[in-house]
User: Fold this.
Amino acid sequence: MTSILVVCSGNICRSPIAEGLLRRAIDRRDDIETPVLGSAGTIAMEGAPATREAVAAAAERGVDISRHVARRLTDPMIAGADLLVCMAAEHREEIEERVPDARDRSFTLKELTRLLEHDTAPADIRGRIARAARARDDGALTETDRFDQDVVDPLGMPLETYLVIADELDEWIDRLVLGLAGPVPARAEGA
Assistant:
């Protein structure tokens, strides 16, 4: 079974929202095996709840993260994940520095989504991740793509900012799942 870990800084804003949206997007698909999903933060305070604003923004998108508990990213978490989806380049870089062999499994959300959108050949999720890593190494992203990798950290901002971030995450997560799993298969006649 595939495991996906969403990573941000404190694991109280972006990554809990993204994890909840990813879970919902995958649950909507009955054609893929549900991966093990989790989230963590590079500087998280273990056990901290998601911010009130993050909970409200996720709820606005139909996702309940009210029971989220922050976890600090550990090397065993990195080693055990098939895919690490980072909210910013700094998170991906820290992962690669801490566990160098995680490089081919570590991407920013936007980077991975863009790479997957350029690759329409059929493959399972692990195969798509491997091809995305090769495409990144081959320079498949434009300079603009490389510049625009981060999801802004809304910590300390008003609820309106969290709502904008949740909308952005929702769009990118839907595109990511499409890229990882491919289009939803057409139903057979009479099914």
